[in-house]
Amino acid sequence: MVEERAAHQLVADARVGRLATVTPQGHAHVVPCCFALDGECVYSAVDAKPKSTLSLARLANLGANPRAALLVDHYEEDWDELWWVRVDGTGRTARSAAERHHALELLVAKYERYRGTPPPGPVIALDIDRWSWWSAAT
After folding, report:
1. Is there a contact between 19 and 44 (Cβ–Cβ < 8 Å)?
2. Is residue 52 scored above 90 in pLDDT?
3. How many domains does the chain have?
4. What's the rounded mean pLDDT across residues 18-26?
5. CB 22 within 8 A of CB 29
6. What is the pLDDT of residue 56?
7. What CATH number does the domain containing 28 carry?
8. Domain that holds residue 24
9. pLDDT band at 3 (very low <50, low <70, confident <90, very high)
10. CA quadruple 60, 97, 47, 19: dihedral positive or negative?
11. How far apart are CA 32 and CA 30, in angstroms?
12. CA nearest neighbour of 49 among 34, 71, 37, 64
């Protein structure tokens, strides 16, 4: 059974999540992302993977509608091991250079790939206001 403390740890330990934002036209926009949990905030940065621009749709979406969610989950063929955790909140870009620096430190500590090339783009902060979760082991 996933309880609140366990849900926080599952998110903290997860390697990838799916960030959901809302387009200006009201459509869902979901992308996989690397992230780091810091208390009641999740940070994700626009990294150096090949992209046509660092001004990604998720940034424009948050500018138009700051409501966002991050979903992490675990799948196995043994369905008794399934679980998911979703955090809902308000998304924004990091407010200051200090917050961006702190977020990048967390991301670099979590992801070895970022140690050689820290993310060059904006940092998204998702201020969590709601946790929800499910586990097959409930």
Report:
1. yes
2. no
3. 1
4. 96
5. yes
6. 80
7. 2.30.110.10
8. 4-135
9. confident
10. negative
11. 7
12. 34
